[in-house]
Amino acid sequence: MANTADGQSGAGRAPPSPATTAGDPARDTAGGQPRFSLRPEVGLKKPSGRVAAAGAGEASVEVSDGATVPDPVFSCHDVNVFYGAKQALKNVSVDVGRRQVLAMIGPSGCGKSTFLRCLNRMNDTIPGARVTGTIRLDGRDIHDPALDVVQLRARVGMVFQKPNPFPKSIYDNVAYGPRIHGLARSRTQLDDIVCSSLTRAGLWDEVKDRLASPGTGLSGGQQQRLCIARTIAVQPEVILMDEPCSALDPVATAKIEDLIDQLRGSYAIVIVTHSMQQAARVSQRTAYFHLGELVEVGETDRVFTNPRHRLTEDYITGRFG
Amino acid sequence: MTRRTVRRLVNYLALGLSGVATAVGLFFLFAILWTLLRNGLAGMSFSLFTEMTPPPGSSGGLLNAIYGSVVMTLVGILIGGPIGMLAGTYLAEYGRASRLSAVIRFVNDVLLSAPSIIIGLFVYELLVIRMGHFSAIAGAVALAIIAMPVTVRTTEDMLNLVPQGMKDASTAMGAYPWRTITSVIYPAARSGIVTGLLLAVARISGETAPLLFTALNNQFWSTKLTAPMANLPVVIYQFALSPYPNWQKLAWSGALLITLSILVLSITARVVVSSLQGGRR
Ligand SMILES: Nc1ncnc2c1ncn2[C@@H]1O[C@H](COP(=O)(O)OP(=O)(O)OP(=O)(O)O)[C@@H](O)[C@H]1O
Ligand SMILES: [Mg+2]
Q: Looking at ligand 1, which atom is closest to the CA of residue A111?
């Protein structure tokens, strides 16, 4: 069984593809976009943060249980979620590291989506849902009454399982967030945000001639990239993705995975997936949930090659779930 | 073998009976339409739209009644439509699961099926008695009260059709509920809401009883909302019951006019709905 897990991650975990690395600088120069940084401090932390997180993260995994990382963007402590009397999450404590992808796997109904919705307080919108415990974003409790949930959601974007563009033009879909948060002072600035977001979502070339046509007219994969563009248009710090590829074909899935790999350079990403290959391909850390509990979390390589918990092992080797 | 025969016979019997029932229903429908067309078309003329309702025995048209119907229907929908839309929005979005919504929904259903004569009497007590006389505005208010529950219901239904994922997406972008409603949900449900409003217009444009108690009638051209105003349903009612042939002829024409305009409204609403469903696919 260890073999299977090894083989899986070995085959699945491709090194960052040359296309991706070559594409990055090419995009930045070819697009000629003024790189907007509406939150300059986020941009500035980039180089040091990445190295530190990767280097120290590995070390700490070996000594701790893997739930914590140095300088986390999100740090969750003893999070419990109840839907009415039913408890959906039990004492979940985990950190989300900067500029890396945390994959969440586990059998259906184990609370992955529930946990994701805690991070941008979307559980608030569900009648009867109750969240306890502390969740800190950059050290600040997100349940602090002084913190505006609208601001929180601007900093923590979300991409859903089913592509859900608004019934508006492609342009207006991407401009939606900047408009409601007043991020653009002029039409040209808004144009720039739309263009750069679509470019970073890898959709610009496909839609640049039809920005005024409805977003719902795109293919499923294009719609999902439009939703990603819409999310990054407000320059969030974290992007939450709930099974973003489950409605897509393999080619569209590969595009989204490439995109996630690129976005990792600027954002923290938490992705829920039912595909272990996908978790292995795109994530640096993996968390395994089971019946509302966080069973195991750690470096993706380690979790897939050397799971510490019996349940994790059973799940990733396909004996369960 | 015998059981199969019995089943087959029962099937044919049921099929036959429902066929007969359909034929009977359609017969009366077409009989009504045919009578209406035969009698109404005879009186259709240019003067119908240019002249006022005449005294008995002389010729005239329905201009003041048509004008009054259009004005009162429009004012009615302008009052009842927005209130109904907002209430429907509350039921579908803000108060989806609250106990208050359940109460509102129940009361709305009662209002929806309340006989319109009751609403006429209610507005009579509310406005006509206080103002001391019949008036167009009282008629419009009565029509608004009839249009409101229809709009509440259709708005709620249409907003519930908007996929939850779309609403969530907007909320997750950091939009306040009102922003989500105006920028995402209303545009997504626009044609459905418009259809609901059209159906409400169709519903109130033929109402007679509430207008009898509120706007009454006016032989002359009047644009004052605070004065009695002519309108097609009441004119039809009065003229049809009169012994004068020229009044009866006008009543037929008026009935045909109303029927045709309701037909046009309903067909428009249907076309809008089917294009909506087409867009959803
Ligand atoms: N809105 C809700 N109301 C009541 N119970 C809910 C609600 N949403 C989720 N639950 C329950 O909470 C538990 C966790 O659900 P959740 O959607 O987080 O699972 P999941 O891990 O995302 O599953 P899947 O992989 O199928 O998406 C489940 O038992 C589910 O029935
Ligand atoms: Mg889920």
A: 18
